[in-house]
Amino acid sequence: MDYDSNSRTEDFDLNSELDYGDSGDSHHLSDLRIVLLGCRDAGKSSAGNTILGREEYELKRTAQCVKRQGEVAGRKITVVEAPGWWKNEPVEESSEILKQEIVLSVPLCPPGPHVLLLVLRVGTTFKDHERRVLEGHMKLLTERVWSHTIVLFTYGDCLGDTPIEQHIKSEDSALQWLVEKCGNRYHVLNNKNRGDDTQVTELLEKIEEMVAANNGCHFEMDRKILQEMEEKKRVLEERGRERMMKVQKQREDIRGVMDDTHHLSDLRIVLLGYRDAGKSSAGNTILGREEFELKRTAQCVKRQGEVAGRKITVVEAPGWWRNNTVEESSEILKQEIVLSVSRCPPGPHVLLLVLCVGTTCKDYVGHMQLLTERVWSHTIVLFTYGDYLIDTPIEQYIESEDNALQWLVEKCGNRYHVLKNKNRGDDTQVTELLEKIEEMVAANSGCHFEMDRKILQEVEEKKRILEERGGERMMKVQKQREDIRGVMGKFLFFVFITPVIFFLNF
User: Fold this and answer.
1) Are 320 and 329 in contact (CB under 8 A)?
2) pLDDT the model gives residue 467
3) How many CB atoms lie within 10 A of CB 254?
4) How far apart are CA 449 and CA 377, in angstroms?
5) How confident is the model at residue 19 (pLDDT cuts 50, 70, 90)?
6) Is the pLDDT assigned to residue 45 strictly greater than 90?
7) Which DSSP state fits 486?
8) For a designed S-S bond to 117, which of 152, 245, 384, 416 qualifies (C-beta 3.0 to 4.6 A apart)?
9) SS in 3 state form for 324-350?
């Protein structure tokens, strides 16, 4: 493994004593500044709440840093939570907004944090590829960050009676490398046991010891790096505003030629997208009630309701795996995607391509092309889990992502919308979506999307053949089981009944 030669895991000693020097009252910090870093779902928000002793952080993903303050054990504590990265995605694939927020978390607690707590979840194995991902994101803060970092293990209750040192030694060398990279500084929090103040006071003492070892210095980023990152953020904000103005102008032009005839009293929608993108949640938000079960299905699901004076039909097509190409998808999945448009005859007014904010997908195009090139003029990109963005405009998010997302939005004629699935009480987000759909239909001269009849017939025939073959297989298996059970009956008769008959005759 290509580890830093200065951190040899084979010499790792968890019992080694660290000489922090004299850490008496002169090193007591009355004002302590903390930054929480880590991958998504590591427990950063829970850790922040445990440190501050109250519910300051909402337990949800965010695209922006969140800063909170409080008083703990006689100290004024400032905690900044940076947004998390996906544990399997290298820094090169992370969005520009994420990288900016990680770097800019440092000046959010001026003049700089005393400590960066690198949050890891106990109970999940820390593999070498996760180490490389973590190291890549930490390098955004320069190599100096490691001397100001403590590994903070969350969900310590998973350890039971196992000491954390034993857990570290039992894990892959990747975890041992990380702990050693942080100068053998680590701490465990049991977020379910917040009543135990000692776990927090002990953490604060460890932070003070580390600061003492750093000659009382806090962590500080090179001013040039911060300025470059702030400039990148400014450029993205500007490009986001330009995109927003362009889309607003586009919508105004369309609405200028619309009249009452373009109001759709009967609206048909198909939801498409990868698994776990939030299609079912989006369908429930649109219909205003729990119509779709939040589980994966292999078949299309159709539901109806009345929303804002319109009869709404929503068809949810099954999703593809996020990183699978269309060639890797099953025949049944491809059939259901194509046949989804025939589930709401004579055809959907709109296809909503559902994407979860903060995730990437490597193949939108292949699966969409199953519906022919014409599908794009009837498609709107629907971003779910918009709560993640907080105050970041969706246009800025689009500009911060890779070219693939920008290309996709352009391919859909710059039509997109954001849903906050956790804020279903806000009816305006749905009515605005319905307005955007009507605008798109008006731009399409009032036409709905329709598949070539020949393509539909071919797919239906393929499906019929698969169902027939499936029925034949089922009958074959049933016959096979019946034959086996027939033999078993004869065998049991011979083994148990024959001796009894023989005995009675005797």
Assistant:
1) yes
2) 75
3) 16
4) 9
5) very low
6) yes
7) H
8) 152
9) CCHHHCCHHHHHHHHHHHHCCCCCCCE
With contact defined as beta carbons under 8 Å apart, do 302 and 292 qualify?
Answer: no
Instruction: Give residue for tokens 């998808």.
Output: 329
Closest of 99, 122, 103, 127 to residue 113, by C-alpha: 103
pLDDT of res. 278: 92
- Amino acid identity at 365: V
Exposed (0-12), middle (13-18) or buried (19+): which is 85, by Cβ within 10 Å? buried
Contact in structure between 399 and 239 (CB atoms under 8 Å):
yes
* 8-state DSSP, 121: E
Q: What is the DSSP string of 188-247?
A: E--TT-TT-THHHHHHHHHHHHHHHHTTTPPP---HHHHHHHHHHHHHHHHHHHHHHHHH
Q: What angle do CA 105, 106, 107 make, to 5 degrees?
A: 100
pLDDT of residue 484: 80
| Residue entry with tokens 């889309």 | 247
Cβ atoms of 120 and 37 closer than 8 Å? no
pLDDT digits (tens, 9 = 90+) for 384-396: 988 888 888 999 9
pTM: 0.80
Burial class (CB in 10 A: 0-12, 13-18, 19+), 344: buried
| CB within 8 Å of 316: residues ≥ 6 apart | 270, 271, 279, 280, 283, 292, 297, 300, 301, 302, 303
Average pLDDT (165-178) is: 90
**CB atoms closer than 10 angstroms to residue 80:** 24
Q: Which domains does the chain have, with CATH numbers?
A: 9-221 (3.40.50.300), 234-451 (3.40.50.300)
Q: How far, in whole angstroms, is CA 435 from its chain's centroid? A: 28
| Tokens representing residue 350 in the block | 């709109």
**Token digits of residue 239:** 């490009």
Helices (H) and strands (E) in the chain, counts: 15, 12
